[in-house]
User: Which sequence fits this backbone?
Protein backbone atom coordinates (compact mmCIF):
# COMPACT_ATOMS: atom_id res chain seq x y z
CA UNK A 1 0.00 0.00 0.00
CA UNK A 2 1.44 3.35 -1.01
CA UNK A 3 1.72 6.43 1.18
CA UNK A 4 -1.19 8.25 -0.48
CA UNK A 5 -3.61 5.39 0.07
CA UNK A 6 -2.36 4.98 3.65
CA UNK A 7 -2.84 8.68 4.41
CA UNK A 8 -6.31 8.55 2.85
CA UNK A 9 -7.23 5.74 5.25
CA UNK A 10 -5.75 7.66 8.18
CA UNK A 11 -7.70 10.79 7.21
CA UNK A 12 -11.00 8.97 6.78
CA UNK A 13 -10.50 7.07 10.04
CA UNK A 14 -9.64 10.27 11.91
CA UNK A 15 -12.73 11.98 10.51
CA UNK A 16 -14.94 9.07 11.52
CA UNK A 17 -13.42 8.99 15.00
CA UNK A 18 -14.04 12.72 15.41
CA UNK A 19 -17.61 12.42 14.11
CA UNK A 20 -18.45 9.42 16.30
CA UNK A 21 -16.55 10.21 19.50
CA UNK A 22 -15.52 13.87 19.39
CA UNK A 23 -12.39 14.19 21.50
CA UNK A 24 -11.02 10.66 21.42
CA UNK A 25 -7.38 11.24 22.33
CA UNK A 26 -5.92 9.72 25.47
CA UNK A 27 -5.64 13.19 27.00
CA UNK A 28 -9.38 13.70 26.58
CA UNK A 29 -9.97 10.33 28.28
CA UNK A 30 -7.74 11.32 31.21
CA UNK A 31 -9.26 14.81 31.38
CA UNK A 32 -12.79 13.42 31.41
CA UNK A 33 -11.92 10.89 34.13
CA UNK A 34 -10.23 13.56 36.25
CA UNK A 35 -13.17 15.96 35.86
CA UNK A 36 -15.56 13.23 37.00
CA UNK A 37 -13.44 12.70 40.13
CA UNK A 38 -14.00 16.34 41.03
CA UNK A 39 -17.64 16.56 39.92
CA UNK A 40 -19.40 13.16 39.76
CA UNK A 41 -22.52 14.76 38.24
CA UNK A 42 -20.74 15.22 34.88
CA UNK A 43 -21.89 12.89 32.13
CA UNK A 44 -19.68 9.92 31.44
CA UNK A 45 -18.70 9.77 27.78
CA UNK A 46 -15.51 7.85 28.42
CA UNK A 47 -16.37 4.46 26.92
CA UNK A 48 -16.61 5.47 23.23
CA UNK A 49 -13.49 7.55 23.64
CA UNK A 50 -11.62 4.72 25.37
CA UNK A 51 -12.70 2.19 22.75
CA UNK A 52 -11.60 4.49 19.89
CA UNK A 53 -8.21 5.14 21.48
CA UNK A 54 -7.68 1.41 22.10
CA UNK A 55 -8.69 0.62 18.52
CA UNK A 56 -6.13 3.09 17.14
CA UNK A 57 -3.43 1.53 19.32
CA UNK A 58 -4.43 -1.99 18.32
CA UNK A 59 -4.34 -0.95 14.65
CA UNK A 60 -0.77 0.24 15.03
CA UNK A 61 0.28 -3.02 16.67
CA UNK A 62 -1.48 -5.13 14.02
CA UNK A 63 0.16 -3.11 11.23
CA UNK A 64 3.60 -3.57 12.81
CA UNK A 65 3.03 -7.32 13.17
CA UNK A 66 1.74 -7.57 9.61
CA UNK A 67 4.85 -5.93 8.21
CA UNK A 68 7.13 -7.99 10.46
CA UNK A 69 8.30 -4.88 12.28
CA UNK A 70 6.98 -5.68 15.76
CA UNK A 71 9.51 -6.78 18.30
CA UNK A 72 9.54 -6.46 22.07
CA UNK A 73 13.06 -5.90 23.27
CA UNK A 74 14.79 -4.58 26.36
CA UNK A 75 16.25 -1.11 25.83
CA UNK A 76 19.93 -0.48 26.32
CA UNK A 77 20.87 2.13 28.93
CA UNK A 78 21.90 4.54 26.16
CA UNK A 79 18.63 4.15 24.23
CA UNK A 80 16.63 4.47 27.47
CA UNK A 81 18.48 7.68 28.33
CA UNK A 82 17.86 9.06 24.83
CA UNK A 83 14.15 8.23 25.05
CA UNK A 84 13.93 9.81 28.50
CA UNK A 85 15.67 12.97 27.26
CA UNK A 86 13.41 13.13 24.19
CA UNK A 87 10.32 12.69 26.34
CA UNK A 88 11.51 15.39 28.74
CA UNK A 89 12.00 17.83 25.85
CA UNK A 90 8.59 16.95 24.41
CA UNK A 91 6.95 17.34 27.82
CA UNK A 92 8.59 20.72 28.39
CA UNK A 93 7.50 21.90 24.95
CA UNK A 94 3.94 20.68 25.52
CA UNK A 95 3.84 22.60 28.80
CA UNK A 96 5.02 25.80 27.09
CA UNK A 97 2.95 25.63 23.89
CA UNK A 98 -0.76 26.11 24.61
CA UNK A 99 -3.02 23.44 23.17
CA UNK A 100 -0.44 20.98 21.89
CA UNK A 101 0.50 20.04 18.36
CA UNK A 102 -3.02 19.54 17.00
CA UNK A 103 -4.25 22.92 18.18
CA UNK A 104 -1.06 24.56 16.96
CA UNK A 105 -1.41 23.20 13.42
CA UNK A 106 -5.19 23.33 13.04
CA UNK A 107 -6.03 26.60 14.79
CA UNK A 108 -2.92 28.54 15.76
CA UNK A 109 -1.00 28.71 12.48
CA UNK A 110 -3.97 29.37 10.16
CA UNK A 111 -5.00 32.28 12.39
CA UNK A 112 -1.37 33.51 12.46
CA UNK A 113 -1.41 33.67 16.25
CA UNK A 114 2.01 35.01 17.32
CA UNK A 115 2.58 32.26 19.89
CA UNK A 116 1.78 29.58 17.28
CA UNK A 117 4.15 31.02 14.68
CA UNK A 118 6.95 31.31 17.26
CA UNK A 119 6.32 27.79 18.56
CA UNK A 120 6.26 26.29 15.06
CA UNK A 121 9.47 28.08 14.09
CA UNK A 122 11.17 26.95 17.31
CA UNK A 123 10.04 23.37 16.70
CA UNK A 124 11.21 23.40 13.08
CA UNK A 125 14.63 24.89 13.91
CA UNK A 126 15.12 22.43 16.77
CA UNK A 127 14.27 19.46 14.56
CA UNK A 128 16.59 20.68 11.78
CA UNK A 129 19.46 21.07 14.24
CA UNK A 130 18.85 17.62 15.68
CA UNK A 131 18.71 16.04 12.22
CA UNK A 132 21.98 17.74 11.28
CA UNK A 133 23.63 16.55 14.49
CA UNK A 134 22.41 13.00 13.86
CA UNK A 135 23.67 13.07 10.26
CA UNK A 136 27.11 14.22 11.47
CA UNK A 137 27.14 11.55 14.14
CA UNK A 138 26.31 8.83 11.63
CA UNK A 139 28.87 10.05 9.05
CA UNK A 140 31.80 9.87 11.47
Assistant:
Amino acid sequence: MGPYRSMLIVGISGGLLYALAGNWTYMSVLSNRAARLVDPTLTANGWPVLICAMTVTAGGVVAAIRYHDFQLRRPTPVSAARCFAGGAVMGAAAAVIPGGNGTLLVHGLPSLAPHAVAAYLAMTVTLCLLFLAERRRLST
Summary: The CA atoms of residues 56 and 115 lie 31 Å apart. The chain has a mean pLDDT of 81. The radius of gyration is 19 Å. The chain is about 75% helix and 0% strand.
